[in-house]
Amino acid sequence: MNYETQVTADSAVVIDDEDARARKRRLLLVAAVVIVALVGGAVWISTRGGGAAAPAVTAQVPVVTVNSPGQSTVARTVTATGSLAARIDMPVGVVGEGGMVTRVLVQPGDWVRAGQVLAVIERSVQAQQVNSLAAQVDVARADAKLAQAQLDRAKALVGRGFISAADIDQRTATRDAAMARVNVAVAQLAEQRARTGRLDIRAPANGLVLTRAVEPGQIVGSGSGVLFRMAKDGEMELLAQVAEGDLATLRPGNSAIVTPVGGNDQFAGRVWQVSPVVDPQTRQGIARIALPYQPAIRPGGFASVTITSGSGNAPLLPESAVQSDPKGNYVYVVNAKNEVERRNVTVGQVSEAGVAVTSGITGNEKIVTSAGAFLTPGQKVKPERLKAS
């Protein structure tokens, strides 16, 4: 009896342990299900919440500054480049017989007067010829004086019958021949003096010496070429290469501002000649711009020029309003629906005041003055008027 009782008690203990373990497994399973449900619910709520919020986001309409500039009076200008030169370039060479140069009296950059000696040619032989001819003049004059005296004495004796009328005629002819020889001798002397004077190289007019190509001891003659170059009265000019289209707008008298390369100095000038022909290769013509003498203006140098060819009315925009792409220049205009439209324009003069637009707009439109590079045609915008500064 006692043995059975003990077995029964042990079996009851084993059964109780198994039940406890089963309950524990069920609790863990329920907890896992609850956690999974909570996580799934959170994910579902977050997904639903994000989808509901998306429609609430609305696109931002950009704010742009616009202006209606109207019409302004702007100068029509033409820009070009070219080379500087003497307005009247005078080459100076040997006029007379030539010879050996003994002295050079001027240097490039010197101002000279008309007739001033630039270089002296050796003249010892010519000087002796002048002296010889001068002596011949003296001889001829002495002969003429003697012939005149003889004629006077003969005329005094003709009344007494000692001299015939034929003798008087002969003596008169002798006197006239002597006077003629005097004139011939004087003319020969003057000719030789002129030849001797022409040996020296002289300035043909008032002006500025530009170059010198002769040195003392050099033998020069009629085939020696140019020994000096001068600018008459020191006047210079710019030979501006102007495009064919711009050339038609220029007239003699148009004002110009010339800036030589290598400096910031600007010089005022005027167009004095517009070429009547156009180079068929470059499609350019020459506008000649007269300039007063300035040390910074050097013939042969390069310079740029801005020529004022007149004035006209055109819209004046800030540079930020004008955009460009491979199709050309354009601006954006805001229409009545507050949408931007592209307008192709032609740009004229660009100055500190702004960019003159010669065609494409009237100036009464609402023109986008900034941020045009970030817009696209048809885009909605909120325009704001440019505030007056």
UniProtKB/TrEMBL annotation:
Q: State the UniProt keywords alphabetically.
A: Membrane, Transmembrane, Transmembrane helix
The positions making up the signal sequence are: none
Which residue intervals define the domain CzcB-like barrel-sandwich hybrid in the entry? 98-225
Record-level Gene Ontology MF annotations: efflux transmembrane transporter activity
What region holds the Multidrug resistance protein MdtA-like C-terminal permuted SH3 domain?
Answer: 313-370
Q: Which cellular component appears as one GO term in the record?
A: efflux pump complex
Q: InterPro entries, per this entry?
A: Beta-barrel_RND_2 (IPR058792), BSH_CzcB-like (IPR058647), MdtA-like_C (IPR058627), RND_pump_MFP (IPR006143)
Q: Where are the transmembrane segments?
A: 27-45
Which residues are in the CusB-like beta-barrel domain? 239-309
Q: Transmembrane helix: present as a keyword of the record?
A: yes
Q: What SUPFAM superfamilies does the database record attribute to this sequence? A: HlyD-like secretion proteins (SSF111369)
Similarity annotation:
Belongs to the membrane fusion protein (MFP) (TC 8.A.1) family.
What is the protein name stated in its UniProt record?
Efflux RND transporter periplasmic adaptor subunit
To which species is this protein native?
Sphingobium xenophagum
